Amino acid sequence: MTTRTLPCSRMIVALTGFMGCGKSSVGRELSVLLRMPLVDLDKYIVDKAGKSIADIFAEQGETAFRDLESEALKEVLDNNRFILSLGGGTILRPENAALIKEKCTCVFLRATVETLRLHLGGDQSHRPLLKDGGFEAMLAERTPIYTAAADFIIDIDHVSPMQTAGIIANLIT
User: Which strands make up the sheet holding 104-110, listed edge to edge?
Assistant: First the structure.
């Protein structure tokens, strides 16, 4: 686990990491522990667009999805004091990373390939970026970006979402 000094004024806790690391599950647990609302950015986008992420990718492509994601991020960050479960690729755009660094306490939920594959299960057809393979290469490419954006890094292998949420709560309170 890595930590940085944290300005206490940033009361939006953003969870980042690769797909399958437990951002949504940990977010739900942390929301209960800290008595703060949870915003799942992917769900917010789906609700706003009226279609699934897979459909957005299929109909409009990844760039259009990332545009929607950036717009959604700006909208939700107008609020104060909540838990934010980011999409696995949200932090990839430098402008998103800068906004998260400015307004949030960012926690990278880091996991091994084995843990991520276990969490994702067998059917990954609803995950557009995994359809063509390249899982390990994508993880290797993204890990330094997640690390650079993080105020805290938590290794989640063999740790439950509830335990992870407890670790985060202890770090930020």
Answer: 2-3, 152-155, 104-110, 12-16, 82-85, 38-40
**Residues whose CB is less than 8 angstroms from the CB of residue 13 and which lie 6 or more positions away in sequence, other chains included:** 30, 34, 36, 82, 83, 84, 104, 105, 107, 168, 172
| pTM > 0.85: yes or no | yes
Element (H, E) at 110: strand 104-110
Torsions phi, psi of 77, nearest 5?
-75, 0
Of all helices (H) and strands (E), which one includes residue 147?
helix 135-149
The type of residue at 134 is G
pLDDT digits (tens, 9 = 90+) for 23-82: 999 999 999 999 999 999 999 999 999 999 999 999 999 999 999 999 999 999 988 899
Run of H or E including 34: helix 23-34
Helix axes 94-103, 135-149, angle to 10 degrees: 40
